[in-house]
Amino acid sequence: MTVSDNTAIDPANAFVSRFTIEGATTGPLHGTDFVAKDLYDIAGHITGCGNPDWARTHEPADLTAPAVAALLNAGATLIGKTHTDELAYSLMGANAHYGTPLNTAAPARVPGGSSSGSVSAVAANLTEIGLGSDTGGSVRLPASFCGVYGIRTTHGLIDLSDAMPLAPSFDTVGWFTRDAGLFAKVGTAYGIEVTSGGRRPRLMIADDAMALCDPAGVSTFDEALTRLSDAYGPATNVTLCPTSMEDWGDVFRIHQGAEIWQVHRDWITKTQPQFGPGVKERFVMASTITPGMFEQSKIDRAEITNLVTDLLGDDGILIVPTSPDAAPLISDDNETLNIFRTKALQLLCIAGLAKLPQINLPVGSIKGAPLGLSLIGPANSDGWLLSIARDLTGA
């Protein structure tokens, strides 16, 4: 592999740095290019994780992360590292230090984070594949906001070595594309078998999840729901949560926050980094979670996991909105963003708590901006979900 400078302009403010590492001369992704979120190590480059103090206190990486190497080995060429929210602890894509990458589908709105640069580069047609990561929704929500395909893979399915951890029992590899066929091909590069023959999903629409979405947005899902039912049979309606989705969001917030503080406490205490609005407050909140709260969240998470796993079985596909609404406006204040984030996490926590794969389909719109529909499948059904996305478009 060769490395060379690339000084091409960055009209979307998507890139931390531009450079080229050529992929293998053969493979399923030969002839394509990709970008990598700046929490994946790339040999010879500092992994900045969206914060100048992190970049200042870390040396260039010795190794390239396996999640990046797999795409290079499959023939894709890496063309740069992309912006992320600070230490990946946000969902909006606004970075107080480096600015907000462009959402070309809705320029007045945020692109979503923390994989903001990768989704921006894909949506702006600056690259074909955007490598991101998803802990609380950091691929799924940006994919909805920017109108592209995105996947959160089954937890543990793809190696996350040599990447900055956030909350290890939630962290997963994910990616973006504009095209459903390429979306599936990236899966094959990671050794995921993408087949559609002989397996008929049992479709379920989660009514309580749908109720979290703006009704005008839900109505734009009709065509996609019709295509799904025509292909696989009618969906049944289910109530997912026996109490409220707000309760599940709280379990996620506490469990994730406790893990985040365990991972980053020592560095934060020693370095005293400068965090931007919202991120700073979330780290403060994480530091206040008691051991008792963490232990209770583990018990609650196990119950939620069992409920969702039993509901899906080995053939169920759960249909939920990816986001409660269109992306917030760049001009929205922090209080507005936090209200949106809390509601979004009630949708996004389902797959995260249960460690399941989820894909965003760019099929809806509201307020002149994209709105995605999600499919959540059983553990390790990633290839099945990718094949459904590909088959629905005829790619």
Word description of this protein:
A hairpin with a 2-residue loop joins strand 11 (358-366) and strand 12 (369-376). Helix 9 crosses helix 10. The chain has a 12-stranded mixed β-sheet with strand order 1-2-4-3-5-7-6-11-12-10-8-9, sandwiched between helices. The two termini are 31 Å apart. The protein is an alpha/beta fold. It has helices at residues 52-56, 66-73, 116-123, 140-146, 180-189, 207-210, 215-219, 222-232, 245-271, 279-287, 291-312, 334-354, 382-393; strands at residues 3-5, 15-21, 33-37, 77-82, 129-134, 149-152, 172-177, 202-206, 236-238, 316-321, 358-366, 369-376. The model is unreliable at 1-7 (pLDDT under 50). 38% of the residues lie in helices and 17% in strands. The protein has 13 helices and 12 strands.
Gyration radius (Cα, Å) is 19 Å
Determine the fraction of residues in helical runs and give it as a percent range.
Answer: 25-40%
Quickly count the helices: 13
Give the overall pLDDT as a whole number. Answer: 96
Main sheet specs: 12 strands, mixed
Order of strands in the sheet with most strands: 1-2-4-3-5-7-6-11-12-10-8-9
Head-to-tail CA distance between termini:
31 Å
Low-confidence stretches: 1-7
Number of strands: 12
- Content-based structural category: alpha/beta
What is the global morphology? globular
Strand proportion: 15-25%
Order of H and E elements: EEEHHEHEHEEHEHHHEHHHEHEEH
